[in-house]
Amino acid sequence: MKTPSEASLKLAAFLRAGRERLKPDEVGLPAGGRRRAAGLRREEVAQLAGISTTWYTWIEQGRTVAVSARALGALAGALKLSRAERAYLFELAALADPGRPAADGDGGALQQPALQPLVQAVRTPAYVLDRHWDALAWNRPAARLFGGWLGARPMTERNLLRYVFLAPQARTFIADWAERAQRLVAEYRADTAGERDDPAGRALVGGLCSESPAFDAAWRSQRVLAREGGARRFHHPRDGLLAYEQFTLRLAQHAALKLIVLVPA
Q1: Domain ranges in the chain?
Q2: What class is the 6-99 domain?
Q3: Residues 17-65: pLDDT tens digits?
Q4: pLDDT tens digit string along 161-203?
Q5: Quick one: residue 32, left, alpha or beta (phi over 0 = left, psi -120 to 50 = alpha)?
Q6: Burial of 231 (0-12, 13-18, 19+ CB in 10 A)
Q7: CA distance from start to end of the chain
Q8: For the structural domain made of 105-264, what CATH number should be given?
Q9: What's a Pfam family in this record (predicted)?
């Protein structure tokens, strides 16, 4: 028999722990007689999730990680996993969660007024992006640096990708624009891998593909890169060439929101 992989064993251990800590009455099942171990039986979890007991047993024994996103979602519901536990489950299985709550991506109750004190506390350029890479909040240094984007009044475009690809001044403002623009598209693809069915995301990409040949070519390349920060340079119309080190941070309670901080290099 094939030796279980490390990934399958981690998935198995997490599911087993979730099953063992649940009590029958927590899922509407009778306690029923003596149980050899704490928690639910494998057949009970399988029944609650609507999958076969044999298949669930294989998963919990680490004999397979070939679980569909739909089945994994059903198991998360059967085990009453929290949002963080569900996210971790899908991460272990290397799958995108089709049932990810929309409020998480939109930032929930954390909107611009609540974010403003955060970015204002940073002395260097800082701004927050949502899951579509729209700017939600920014400080004065960021508005001064990105005058054509965050400092523009009236503000007609706050999406980072649309600014980079559609604003004429962006090509001269961003040093090495062609390379940076392609990298941004690759980072956006990786950042939104779990949002394939999001209508707003599809509309954004579709609009950019039709309006910008450069974006269309970069999107069709299928390139994927992690958004890790690094060196950034800009040709500022008043301050000349500026160099920064970029740091991208996730907000703990709103994982789809990103705080970007630029520290002078």
Answers
A1: 6-99, 105-264
A2: mainly alpha
A3: 999 888 888 888 776 666 776 788 899 999 998 889 998 999 998 887 6
A4: 999 999 999 999 999 999 999 999 999 988 887 666 678 888 8
A5: left
A6: exposed
A7: 55
A8: 3.30.450.180
A9: HTH_31
